[in-house]
């Protein structure tokens, strides 16, 4: 059983076309605050990232934002964070997010969200961390990605034990059950 106190959420710098994405971001924010968990995110004031930070902070929760200097200079930083950490580049940002978090959740987003998710998964595959990683599969948003991960196993490009690193659920409660019960594979080997 995990002791999850600090949750990194990877999500869009936009809110998407379906209002369900904003609704689930607000619901996840409430869940974090209600369960005394700190939100770690990319430090932006826009999109689902900003929606979550605003809600957590409004409810008296803690939100640590980590943003590279280039994005801060473009004035997209959320200046109301509990703590805003400015990094020199994107790689340092991702490393800091991993170091400050006990678990990772991906909400709908674009290339940046997937970049953060896949780097975190790759680091877990390489045994650089053993923290749980999950997709909150809102409205089937991640179905094609889940199918692709399964195909990677079928085609011999991803080992089945590495595939277990990515947990998926359609509800927040189910996802946290999976994250809390995460046991990293002991014999991870990569091709």
Give me some keywords for this one.
191 residues, Rossmann fold, single chain, alpha/beta, 7 strands, 7-stranded parallel sheet
Q: What do these coordinates show?
A:
With 191 residues, this protein is of the alpha/beta class. The chain has a single domain (6-180), classed as Rossmann fold, CATH 3.40.50. Helix content is 44%, strand content 17%. It is built from eight helices and seven strands. The chain has helices at residues 19-34, 47-58, 69-73, 90-100, 111-125, 143-154, 160-163, 172-180; strands at residues 6-10, 38-41, 63-68, 83-87, 103-106, 133-136, 166-169. The protein has a seven-stranded parallel sheet with strand order 4-3-2-1-5-6-7, with helices on both faces. Helix 1 links the parallel strand 1 and strand 2 (38-41). The protein is globular and about 45 Å long.
CATH topology: Rossmann fold
Taken together, the total number of domains comes to 1
DSSP strand (E) fraction?
Answer: 15-25%
Structural class: alpha/beta
Summarize the amount of helix as a percent range: 40-55%
Give the integer mean of the pLDDT values: 94
Report the total helices: 8
Summarize the structure.
The chain has helices at residues 19-34, 47-58, 69-73, 90-100, 111-125, 143-154, 160-163, 172-180; strands at residues 6-10, 38-41, 63-68, 83-87, 103-106, 133-136, 166-169. The protein has 191 residues and is α/β, with parallel strands linked by helices.
What order do the helices and strands come in, and which of them pair?
Blueprint: E1 6-10, H1 19-34, E2 38-41, H2 47-58, E3 63-68, H3 69-73, E4 83-87, H4 90-100, E5 103-106, H5 111-125, E6 133-136, H6 143-154, H7 160-163, E7 166-169, H8 172-180
Parallel strand pairs: 1-2, 1-5, 2-3, 3-4, 5-6, 6-7
């Amino acid at each position: 059983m995990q002791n999850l106190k600090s949750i990194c959420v990877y999500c869009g710098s936009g809110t998407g076309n379906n209002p369900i994405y904003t609704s689930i971001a607000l619901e996840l924010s409430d869940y974090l605050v209600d369960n005394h968990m700190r939100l770690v995110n990319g430090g932006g004031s826009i999109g689902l990232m900003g929606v979550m930070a605003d809600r957590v902070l409004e409810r008296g929760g803690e939100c640590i934002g980590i943003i590279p200097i280039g994005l801060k200079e473009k004035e997209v930083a959320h200046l109301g964070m509990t703590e805003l950490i400015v990094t020199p580049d994107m790689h340092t940002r991702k490393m800091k997010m991993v170091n400050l978090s006990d678990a990772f959740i991906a909400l709908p987003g674009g290339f940046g969200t997937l970049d953060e998710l896949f780097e975190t998964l790759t680091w877990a595959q390489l045994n650089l961390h053993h923290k749980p990683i999950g997709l909150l599969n809102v409205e089937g948003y991640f179905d094609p990605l889940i199918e692709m991960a399964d195909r990677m196993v079928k085609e011999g490009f991803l080992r089945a034990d590495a595939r277990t690193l990515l947990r998926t659920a359609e509800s927040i409660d189910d996802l946290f059950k999976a994250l809390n019960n995460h046991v990293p594979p002991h014999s991870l080997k990569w091709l």
